[in-house]
Amino acid sequence: MELPEMNKYDKVAKTDYEIYPLLSQRYSPRVFKDKKITAEELHQLFEAVRWSASSNNIQPWRFILTKKGSKAFNNVVDCLSEFNQKWVKNAPVLVLCGYKKTVDKVKENFHALHDLGLCLGNMTIQAQSMDIALHHMAGLDWQKAHEVFKVPDDFHIATALAIGYYGGDITALPEDLQKQELAKRERKPQSEFVFKDSWK
Ligand SMILES: Cc1cc2nc3c(=O)[nH]c(=O)nc-3n(C[C@H](O)[C@H](O)[C@H](O)COP(=O)(O)O)c2cc1C
C-alpha cells in the first residue's frame, strides 16, 4: 500500500452540525513536515496563550520551550512515556506545560489546570490558522520533569506538547502508529454529555 504524505485536510471531522473550519480541521498528528517553526511564529502561538481568559486573571500557565537539536529537547524526550518516544522526535518543538498551584503561596488555585487547558485550546486555534499542529501529551513522567528541569515546588508540570507543521512522511512512524494516523476519528454524540435542565 502506498502511504500518503499527510496534510491538514486529511482528518477533517465529520461533524453533526456546522462548526468553524479551524476546529473541524484540527487533529493531533504524530508526523510533521520537515520544516522549522520560527521564533516569530512561536511568539504568535504564545501571544494567543497570553490573551486567554483565566480565573481572576491569574494567568497560572508556565511553559518550558525546547527546539530539536538541543539538550533540553532531548531531556523532554527522556521524560516522556515509551509510547510517546516512538513518534515525538518527528516534531521540531517540544514544550512542557505547567501551572502555578497556589495564589499568594497559600490558597490553592483550584482553576489553574482549567486555565492551562483553556489557553492551550486558544493556542490550538492560532496554530491551526498558521497550518501548525499541536499534539498534547499526558504520557509524561512529571516527577522526572520536575527534577530534570528544576521546577519550583509551587508549580506542576501537567503535560507536554509537540508542535510542528502539518504534513510529513507517515513512514517515519512505526507500523502500528501508521494505522492510527490513518484511522477514522470517533466522538461521543452530544446526548452523552449535554444534559438539559438536570443531570441526565
Ligand atoms: C490532555 C491530553 C493528553 C494527551 N496525551 C496523549 C499522549 O500522551 N500521547 C498521544 O499520543 N496522544 C495524546 N493525546 C492526544 C489524544 O489522544 C487525542 O487528542 C484524541 O485521541 C483525539 O484525537 P484528535 O486530537 O486527533 O481529535 C492527548 C490529548 C490531550 C488533550
Automatic annotation (TrEMBL):
<feature type="region of interest" description="Disordered">
    <location>
        <begin position="181"/>
        <end position="200"/>
    </location>
</feature>
<feature type="domain" description="Nitroreductase">
    <location>
        <begin position="24"/>
        <end position="165"/>
    </location>
</feature>
<dbReference type="GO" id="GO:0016491">
    <property type="term" value="F:oxidoreductase activity"/>
</dbReference>
<keyword id="KW-0560">Oxidoreductase</keyword>
<dbReference type="Pfam" id="PF00881">
    <property type="entry name" value="Nitroreductase"/>
</dbReference>
<comment type="similarity">
    <text>Belongs to the nitroreductase family.</text>
</comment>
<dbReference type="InterPro" id="IPR000415">
    <property type="entry name" value="Nitroreductase-like"/>
</dbReference>
<protein>
    <submittedName>
        <fullName>Nitroreductase</fullName>
    </submittedName>
</protein>
<dbReference type="InterPro" id="IPR029479">
    <property type="entry name" value="Nitroreductase"/>
</dbReference>
